[in-house]
Design brief:
Elements: H1 8-11, H2 15-27, H3 48-58, H4 61-67, E1 69-72, H5 81-89, E2 94-97, H6 110-122, E3 130-133, H7 153-159, H8 161-178, E4 182-183, H9 196-199, H10 208-224, E5 228-234, H11 253-269, E6 274-277, H12 295-304, E7 310-315, H13 327-337, E8 341-344, H14 347-363, H15 368-384
Parallel strand pairs: 1-2, 1-8, 2-3, 3-4, 4-5, 5-6, 6-7, 7-8
Helix pairs in contact: 2-8, 3-15, 4-15, 7-8, 8-10, 10-11, 13-14
């Protein structure tokens, strides 16, 4: 997703401000050793996956396809009428919030999110929403007040794993209190000369192992507070902004293995709930399709790196996919390639995506089993984070 329009200098008035924030985070009294990600069981999803498969198999086709859609909504601090109709008609799996949705103070957002959840529970299969926001720190900050403005990932990384873990815990706790249950963070990829112009200070480190370890520390602490995390953007980005064009990363296969994969291996070992795909094209992995539409790239993530969570596309309305026949066609191609959830930043695009998925299944272009597998992966994470309490 696009960082905020203000430059980094506007995020912190001075380096001293960032140091003070980090000092506050590090001094917070949290249990455990903050230098390592929170301990996880050998299988933290035990029992959830099987129940999710049963639930996904019992959904109507309409409800199953709806679970695969993450939609934007309108209104600031309230759910406007078009958005109410959207959620009543489209049994979406998730909602994404942008800065224009969030009022000052941030606490005033909670009634609107509670209403969105009430609508979701009252329609279709009655499945609550993942409610997502980009809350990385630094430039990527959607709130005006009421939520801690974290330093950028690079500043956190320079302060060390203790500060990163504290930042993740603060983010998870504060978002959950607002009714937000999915943070589209952290950026796991390392930065280099290729992606630095796009990522800026959003990555923790230039070293892929360190970037992965710090991303794992952030997400593990956040998820321990009950807010799901999304590591992004697999396999990586190039110099082009995907909002404007298709980034092409001319990395050889060996470089993919040594530089691009390691951060995500670390995030997956820390049991990240979601991995977001980039729209970049890696010719060494797929000479034609961008990562978000590539069976080879998504297969590498799921089978090669062993990721069992939700594979989420970046926004299919971005210009990087403008040559793919429209958002609906891109969504079908992404799900067919192995993506589990499709981000559609606006209501019109979300409706287009939903209709395209339904029509593709009905016509045989998209296998129903693939849709139900994707829905099961989403429901597994909703079970894991307590969203489906009371649902048989």
């Amino acid at each position: 997703m696009r960082p905020g329009s203000s430059p980094t200098a506007a995020v912190f008035a001075s380096a001293r401000a960032a140091v003070l924030v980090l000092a506050t985070l590090v001094s917070a009294c949290l249990p455990g050793d903050p230098s390592e990600p929170a301990a996880v069981s050998s299988d933290p999803w035990a029992g959830h996956a099987e129940r999710a498969r049963v639930l996904a198999g019992a959904l109507s086709l309409e409800a199953a396809c709806g679970q695969l859609v993450m939609t934007g909504i309108g209104g600031r601090g309230s759910l406007d009428q078009p958005s109410r109709r959207l959620l009543e008609e489209l049994p979406a799996g998730a909602v994404i919030l942008f800065g224009f949705n969030i009022p000052p103070p941030a606490g005033d957002l909670r009634p609107a999110l509670d209403l969105a959840q009430e609508i979701a529970r009252g329609t279709g299969a009655g499945i609550p929403l993942f409610i997502a926001v980009d809350h990385e720190g630094g430039d990527v900050f959607r709130f005006r007040d009421g939520v801690t403005r974290l330093p950028s990932a690079r500043t956190q990384g320079e302060a060390g794993p203790a500060a990163v873990s504290r930042a993740g815990a603060v983010a998870g706790r504060e978002l959950k209190a607002l009714g937000i249950n999915l943070n589209l963070a952290p950026v796991a990829e390392a930065w280099d000369a290729r992606n630095g112009g796009f990522l800026g200070t959003r990555a923790f480190s230039a070293d892929p192992e360190e970037a992965g370890a710090l991303a794992a520390a952030f997400l593990a602490a956040q998820q321990a507070e009950g807010t799901a995390a999304a590591a992004k953007h697999y396999p990586g980005n190039g110099s082009e902004d995907p909002h404007k064009a298709v980034p092409v990363v001319p990395a050889a296969l060996g470089e993919v293995e040594s530089f691009y994969d390691p951060p995500f291996r670390r995030a997956i070992r820390a049991d990240v709930a979601v991995v977001m795909l980039s729209h970049a094209r890696f010719p060494a992995l797929d000479p034609e399709a961008p990562a978000s539409l590539s069976p080879a790239v998504i297969g590498r993530l799921k089978e090669g790196l062993g990721f069992r969570g939700v594979v989420l596309t970046d926004d299919v309305a971005m210009k990087a996919l403008s040559g793919e026949g429209g958002a609906g066609d891109a969504a079908v191609a992404a799900v067919r390639a192995g993506a589990d959830m499709v981000m559609a930043s606006g209501g019109r695009v979300a409706r287009e995506v939903y209709r395209a998925l339904l029509e593709a299944v009905r016509s045989g272009e998209l296998r129903e089993a693939r849709v139900r597998d994707a829905a099961a992966r989403i429901l597994t994470q909703k079970l894991r984070f307590g969203l489906l309490k009371g649902i048989d």
